[in-house]
Amino acid sequence: MNKIRQLFSLFDTLSFSFKTSFLILVITGGMISIIILSQISIYALKNDFDILFEKRTKPLTKLEIIKDAYKINIYDTLYELQQHNLNATQAKDVIILGEQLIEKNWNEYIQTSNNKEFEPTFITYYIKKIFSFKKLSTDNNILKINIIRNVDNKIQQLNKDLQTIEELNNSNGKLSVELIDRIYSQINSINIYITNLINYDLNLAINEKRDTQKVFNVLTMILNFSIIFVFCSSIILSILLINNFKKLHIGLEDTVDEKTKELQKLNENLEKRVKYEVDSNRKKDLIMFQQARLASLGEMIANIAHQWRQPLGAILVIIQSFQLKAQMGKLDEEYIEKKAQDAMHLANNMSDTLEDFQNFFKPNKSKEIFSLKECINDSFDLSKYVLEQEKITFSLTLKEEISILGYYNELSHVFLNIISNSKDALSATKENNRQIKVIVKRINEKAKISIYDNGGGILPEVLPKIFEPYYTTKYKSNGTGIGLYMSKQIIEKHMRGSIKCKNVYYKIDKVFEDCTLFIIEIPIAQKETTNEK
């Protein structure tokens, strides 16, 4: 008892990390041992089952079939022949069938007996040798070989005698009786040898089963001992670790008390500092709020300027056309009326732009159902003077009328932004055959709008940035970099759709060219949402 206490005291003096490592080592080692022993048991039992069933037990059915064939197909047939219940031809057919059955099963038995696949493996042999603690039962192959040889000889001799079965029809009855008696004697001898083989294989199976049972009992005992050892060791080591935790806990409590007093003093000072920082942050928040309002105001002014630039350019083209017609003496009332209506339309659009941007950031805006075709055509009408001046042609392909529930003017602004960018690209890269092509398709419950221009595409390093705010490749006087950014906000946040851009190789007027493609997908107005606001 004193030695045990001394051992515990010695273990208690060790470091906490060493104790933990030792506990983990014991548990891990024990579990590994249990797993290894379990696998050895399973392997030994499986191998023993394969041998007992495939090599010992299963072939016995072949021997029983052979015995039955000799008894029924040959012995009983000859008896029926003697009693004149069968003629020689019928008896011969039954005997030939029996010989084939006997030959097939006997060959299968020999093949299974000689098959090395069902021999005990090197591992199984040593497992049984180690854990059985005595000399293993061995297979007396000499006896078995002699029995098999005798059976082969008897079968060959019997087959020769059976080939003379037609002699039973001769008038010499004495010869027939001798032949049948000799066949009966050979059948009995073969059945005796086969019975010996069956007993031999059964004895081997029983001995192997005993050896396996001994191995299994020993392994089970070792497994139980390992489990008990791991369990007890884990409990003892856990108790020692818990005691160590208690000591650490007591020491930590004292340390925590000291730190708590220090923290209380720090908290008193921190409260004053936090109050000061909160007041400072409030002032910063007010300044940032004012800056955000100024930034929003500046962004709105930039958006208005961007949206007005295109209609102002169109109005300028109308004024220049008046001057040109007046100089040529072709200015008539019909022309003045038409151009005046176009200018009024542009001016109304500029007025609507102010209202649209005023309501752009308001969460509650009224939606309306409108024709997508009308919105696209109206957007191109607003830009037709600039497009005509740059000799840019426009085409729209739309197979069915599609209605959209959303904001008409905002979607028109998106089209105007894309038209403006396409116009700039076409003016800078092409001298003739400048085209903008729009294709609208209905896909499920969405309208897909594809806008192509053959302006040569966008540079690969520029393409990922085109929807970023204030990013532009134009001169500051020609662009603010806000148009496509606002277009993305309108489509995604206000129209619940998507917009993307990519370069494509597209067929324009039967000729493939490098083109820029804008793809817009927006939901189509549903019947149940016609009253939505």
Account of the 3D structure:
- The protein is of the alpha+beta class and 533 residues long.
- 70% of the residues lie in helices and 11% in strands.
- The chain contains eleven helices and seven strands.
- The chain has helices at 2-12, 16-82, 88-114, 122-132, 141-163, 173-328, 333-359, 372-382, 384-389, 408-429, 483-494, and strands at residues 368-371, 392-398, 403-406, 434-443, 446-453, 498-508, 511-523.
- The strands form two sheets. Strands 2-4-5-7-6 form a five-stranded mixed sheet. A two-stranded antiparallel ribbon has the order 1-3.
- Helix 6 (173-328) packs across helix 7 (333-359).
- The longest helix has 156 residues, at 173-328.
- The radius of gyration is 52 Å and the shape is elongated.
